[in-house]
Design a protein that fits this description.
Elements (H helix, E strand, L loop, with lengths): L15 E3 L6 E3 L1 E4 L10 H13 L4 E3 L10 H10 L11 E6 L14 H15 L4 E6 L8 H13 L3 E7 L3 H14 L3 E7 L11 H7 L3 E5 L35 H16 L4 H9 L7 E4 L4 H8 L9 H12 L2
Helix pairs in contact: 2-3, 3-4, 4-5, 7-10
């Protein structure tokens, strides 16, 4: 199987934002491989999604060492798929990975020590069959490791040629500021901050977005659809093959509460009035502010990815629509 990318993949298909104050541009929609690309999932569907993404200008592919399941298999499968692209395609892709969560047994397979981060990056590169990744993240703040050690390990990954840029993910505001300062002093400024962001998860509005913007750091949001709840999937119960129904998923049935479903139903009515799907509106809402340069979509099928992709084709929100959405979200 040889994948031949579409020669017109950048022609009026995707919009790009400069990441913070760097020279790097990110597509407004990035493809995340947190779910649906592991060994328990359909390899052929994964190929279809990655090919569609690249053919339509979604140039950023977001991974982590522990993505699967099982852990590591999303990187392995993505690396396998990359072998079917022309070698020149690599220069048109932004590939990111992370380390910070439990990955292997023993004292060195978890946390944010220099030992763990650099060992994990070497393992990720072998699975991905790459010489370097574009972005290497500290996946979470580790209170048991000095922040200077963690940031120096990230900087050294760049110096070693194993990463072009570095980022942090899921850091509290105070440690975020300290991390930015340490990385800048090391000569490897933080490119990007990744955290959860959606209509139903807005903690980053309480300092993270502002801090990133003030320091020239880009922001990318993950779970913009709140693991699928911000779609029409759960309006009438929990479907058999949904994330909430899977034993291997992070979404719990208890999160699909009657109160949440009621709120989502009202949001769906707003989306229908805009002649778009709720998922499309939820993605557009996250991108409504220039402080958010990209959002990571995690889709289980080509159909879902195509629906997400078309979110960029709809008109901007009116002030009245934004007020209506805010009122729905503020309801207890």
């Amino acid at each position: 199987m040889q994948i031949e990318p579409s020669p017109s993949r950048y022609k009026d298909k995707m919009q790009y934002n400069r990441c913070g104050e760097s020279g790097l541009q990110l597509p407004k929609l990035s493809l995340g491989l947190w779910h649906n690309f592991g060994d328990v999932d359909s390899y052929n569907e994964a190929v279809s999604m990655i090919q569609f993404a690249f053919d339509n200008g979604i140039t950023h592919f977001d991974l982590a060492n522990n993505y699967g399941p099982p852990e590591g298999t999303a990187e392995k499968n993505f690396g396998k798929i990359l072998q079917h692209f022309p070698p020149s395609s690599r220069d048109e892709m932004i590939i990111s990975t992370k380390a910070g969560h439990l990955m292997w047994p023993g004292p060195y397979g978890d946390g944010s020590s220099r030992k763990y981060l650099l060992s994990s990056l070497d393992q990720s590169l072998r699975r991905l069959r790459l010489d370097y990744v574009d972005i290497f993240y500290s996946h979470r703040y580790d209170p048991n490791t000095p922040l200077e050690e963690t940031m120096t390990a990230l900087s050294d990954a760049v110096r070693q040629g194993k990463a072009l840029y570095v980022g942090i993910s899921k850091y509290p505001v105070d440690k975020t500021l300290e991390a930015y300062q340490l990385l800048k002093a090391n000569g490897t400024p933080c490119l990007i901050h990744q955290d959860r962001y959606s209509m139903l998860s807005r903690d980053v509005e309480q300092g993270i977005l502002q801090t990133a913007s003030e320091h020239g750091v880009g922001f990318i949001g993950f779970s913009p659809l709140y693991q699928g709840i911000l779609s029409d999937k759960y309006l009438h119960g929990i479907p058999e093959n949904s994330r909430a129904a899977k034993a291997t998923g992070f979404l719990q049935r208890s999160q699909v509460s009657p109160e949440v479903v009621d709120k989502v139903s009202k949001l769906n009515a707003v989306a229908l009035n805009r002649s778009q799907s709720l998922a499309q509106m939820a993605l557009q809402w996250c991108l409504r502010t220039p402080q958010v340069q990209s959002v990571i979509v995690g889709t289980s099928s080509l159909t879902q990815l195509q629906d997400n992709f078309h979110a960029l084709n709809y008109p901007q929100f009116t002030n009245e629509e934004l007020q209506t959405i805010e009122h729905i979200l503020s309801e207890s």
